[in-house]
Amino acid sequence: MDDCLFCKIIRGEIPSYRVFEDAHAFAFLDINPFGLGHTLVVPKFHAEQLFFLPPEELAGVMPAVQRVATLLRNRLGCEGMALMQLNGEVAGQTVGHVHFHLIPRFAGQPAGWAPCTDPAAKDLAAVQRRILG
Ligand code: AMP
Ligand code: ZN
Question: Which atom from ligand 1 is nearest to the alpha carbon of 101?
Fold first, then answer.
């Protein structure tokens, strides 16, 4: 889709901190992270919401969700992992291309979901280096 932000990121027309890519999926760091390593995994196929993603495309992207979750856990040493996926403005969706939020969760971290202020989490270049080794 010509005007879609995440399609532009997938095509490389807008820069991103990429951490994984395969034939079906593209994963990059969220620009406004809820915590260290907050990553978005998106299908390369453009669909605005989960309801409109063909099942075979969903089947293509889910292995990447699991693979990136494992990568984040191994590289960042988090104790847990939140997976979040929002559909529709009323649910809080702001970008109209299906995306899966992977949010590493660390012991002692306050509960709740909000953009964080931790400078280490906001230094996306450094986080990308840690993830990619
Ligand atoms: P949602 O509220 O589920 O639609 O999430 C959209 C997410 O995309 C938000 O967490 C934003 O911080 C993130 N985002 C928006 N623009 C960019 C961008 N250019 N690069 C990386 N993440 C982005
Ligand atoms: Zn798109």
Answer: 3
